């Protein structure tokens, strides 16, 4: 079994990270990328934040108008290298991936994007001295992993292609740091809940869809069984984690790829009750999805993120109640509903 230990960390080379100035966000039109790109553009005023996309998923509106954009297919190394040269990129956010449920239906494509794409990015970063963020996930754990207070360093034996690629991503990113000094950093995201972009095939998507149903006055069909706890995080905290880790003092980092980050853990009944505090008539029933349930059952109930808190001062801003209030208020405004 693979157990992330402490011995290999002693071989890490010293690497002084530069402040982000010119950033490439690959997957800029996805759930995380669309919001991360805009957040970075608001914070980085003396450089470029390039919205990387693939044909068929072009940036639109403010995302397109507020900064440069370029076709950035992770499987085309030449294309990526040209973007890095043109914009003098110093930091790459690699968000190209198929999410858990989709990856199970297209495992070879998932491997191609998430592993062959990553090696292209890491090679470019090695040659052109870029820092790289490639997120991992709670999906990197498996049924043999301790489920409660899941440690930073523990058994990682996932049973999904998504999880396999995430463990390999962590290892390969570590390898390029220890072997070549590439400044690789990452976090293990829990399920992410956004009021801006709809999810795209993840096991935790129900925790986004349930708010849309509640605000629209619809009865929600939950695909995950009652009693299934999973780590979740509101998108503003996820963006904060992705940026803060890349700005962290490298001399404090013992771990790099990838840090557990946590915010809240709940099952469907708990999130339903949180919504009913503000929308009392909301109703939910269960329509069991065996594929998603099997994936959820192999993931932790709650991760221990003490290493992130100790090494780069990670701290979330939202809990379930404050997130619920913000989600409902935002979606009510969007759909023209009275709160």
Spell out the blueprint of helices and strands.
Elements: E1 23-26, H1 31-43, E2 49-53, H2 61-65, E3 69-71, H3 77-87, E4 91-94, H4 100-105, H5 107-128, E5 131-133, E6 136-137, E7 148-150, H6 161-180, E8 184-185, E9 187-189, E10 191-193, H7 206-216, E11 220-222, E12 230-234, H8 235-247, E13 259-260, E14 264-266, H9 268-276, E15 284-286, H10 290-297, E16 302-303, H11 306-312, H12 320-335
Parallel strand pairs: 1-2, 1-4, 2-3, 4-5, 5-8, 6-9, 7-16, 9-13, 10-12, 11-15
Antiparallel strand pairs: 12-14
Description:
The strands form five sheets. Strands 3-2-1-4-5-8 form a six-stranded parallel β-sheet, with helices on both faces. It has helices at residues 31-43, 61-65, 77-87, 100-105, 107-128, 161-180, 206-216, 235-247, 268-276, 290-297, 306-312, 320-335, and strands spanning 23-26, 49-53, 69-71, 91-94, 131-133, 136-137, 148-150, 184-185, 187-189, 191-193, 220-222, 230-234, 259-260, 264-266, 284-286, 302-303. The protein has two domains: 20-191 and 233-260, Rossmann fold; 195-232 and 264-301 and 318-332. The protein is α/β, with parallel strands linked by helices and 339 residues long. The N and C termini lie far apart (51 Å). α1 links the parallel β1 and β2. 42% of the residues lie in helices and 15% in strands.
């Amino acid at each position: 079994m693979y157990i992330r230990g402490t011995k290999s960390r002693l071989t890490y080379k010293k690497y002084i990270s530069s402040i982000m100035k010119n950033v490439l966000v690959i997957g800029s039109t996805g759930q995380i990328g669309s919001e991360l790109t805009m957040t970075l553009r608001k914070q980085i005023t003396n450089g470029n934040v390039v919205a990387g996309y693939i044909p068929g998923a072009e940036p639109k509106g403010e995302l397109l108008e507020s900064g440069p954009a370029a076709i950035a297919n992770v499987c085309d190394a030449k294309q990526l290298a040209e973007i890095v040269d043109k914009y003098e990129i110093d930091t790459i956010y690699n968000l190209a991936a198929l999410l858990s449920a989709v990856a199970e239906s297209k495992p070879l494509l998932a491997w191609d994007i998430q592993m062959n794409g990553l090696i292209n990015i890491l090679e470019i970063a090695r040659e052109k001295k870029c820092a790289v963020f490639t997120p991992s996930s709670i999906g990197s754990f498996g049924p043999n992993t301790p489920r409660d207070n899941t440690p930073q360093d523990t058994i990682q034996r996932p049973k999904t292609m998504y999880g396999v690629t995430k463990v390999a991503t962590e290892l390969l990113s570590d390898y390029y740091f220890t072997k070549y000094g590439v400044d690789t950093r990452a976090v293990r995201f829990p399920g992410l809940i956004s009021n801006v972009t709809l999810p795209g095939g993840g096991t935790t998507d129900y925790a986004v869809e349930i708010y849309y149903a509640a605000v629209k006055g619809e009865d929600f069909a939950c695909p995950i069984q009652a009693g299934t706890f999973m780590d979740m995080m509101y998108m503003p905290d996820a963006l904060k984690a992705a940026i803060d880790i890349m700005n962290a003092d490298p001399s404090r980092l013992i771990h790099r790829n990838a840090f557990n980050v946590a915010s809240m853990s709940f099952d469907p009944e708990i999130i339903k009750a949180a919504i009913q505090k503000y929308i009392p008539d909301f109703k939910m029933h269960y329509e069991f999805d065996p594929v998603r349930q099997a994936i959820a059952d192999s993931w932790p109930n709650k991760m221990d993120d003490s290493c992130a808190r100790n090494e780069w001062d990670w701290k979330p801003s939202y809990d379930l109640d404050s997130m619920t209030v913000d989600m409902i208020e935002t979606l009510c405004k969007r759909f023209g509903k009275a709160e």
